[in-house]
C-alpha cells in the first residue's frame, strides 16, 4: 500500500514561485508563437529574423529566473542530488536513439519524474536534461533554449496530471506521453517554420497575413515535415517505454522520494559534552 501514497515533493511550490512559473510558461509559449503575430516587411529580409534572435537571447534569462525562483522556494541538497542523477540519466538516454526516426527516450523519464516529483521539479528537470544532453551530444545551438523550455513545459504538465493509480495511471501517462511528443514537435517546428518553409511557397510564412491564415499554412507544413515522421516516432517510443518500464520506474522513483524525505526538516544534534 505504501506505493500508492503520494511521495513528498522535492520542489515546494509556494504562491510566489507558482506565479513566476505560470507567467514564464505563458511568456515562453508566446515566444514560440512569434511567426503567427510578427509583421515584418517582405523586403526587409535582414530584419525579418530579428524576433527569433531576440527570443534566443531572452529565453535563457527567462529560464534562469524561473530556476532561481524555484530554488529560492525550496530545493535542498537531496533534491539537487536527485536532479543531477536524473539529468545525467536522461543525458545518457538521449544519444541511444537520437537521429533515428524520432526515437527519443529522454521524454519517457521526464514524464515519469514529473509525475512523481511534481510540476516544479518536472520543469527544472526538463531544462537541465536537455542542457546536459546538448553538451554531451554537441547539440548546443540557437535551438537549445527553445528545446529546454519545451521540455520544461512537458515536465511541468506531467506534474499537474490528475490522480490515478494502477492501470489507469499507466493509461494516463501513455496518453500524456503521446501528447508530449506531438507538443514538443509542434513547438519546435513553429519557431523555425518561417526559415525552413520560406516565404515563396504554399506552406511558407506570409509576413503580415492574418494569424489564422499563417496558422493554416503552418499546420500543413508541420504535418508533412514533422508530425507524420519524427513526432509519431517519438510518440510511439514514449508509449512503448511507459507501458513496458513505467510501473517499475514509478515504483523506484516513489521509493526514492519517500526515503529522501524531502519535506522533513534537517536537524543537526549538538554533541553532548562529557
Summarize the structure.
It contains ten helices and no strands.
Structure overview:
By secondary structure, the protein is mainly alpha-helical. Helix content is 73%, strand content 0%. The longest helix has 50 residues, at 211-260. Residues 40-48 have low confidence and may be disordered.
Question: What oligomeric assembly is this protein in?
Answer: single chain
Q: How many β-strands, per DSSP?
A: 0
Mean pLDDT: 79
Alpha-carbon Rg, integer = 20 Å
Strand content: under 5%
Largest sheet: none
* Uncertain spans: 40-48
Topology at a glance:
Blueprint: H1 15-32, H2 34-37, H3 45-48, H4 50-74, H5 77-97, H6 106-117, H7 119-137, H8 144-159, H9 166-197, H10 211-260
InterPro entries: ECF_substrate-spec_UCP037395
Protein name: ECF transporter S component
Keywords: Membrane, Transmembrane, Transmembrane helix
Short descriptors:
single chain; mainly alpha
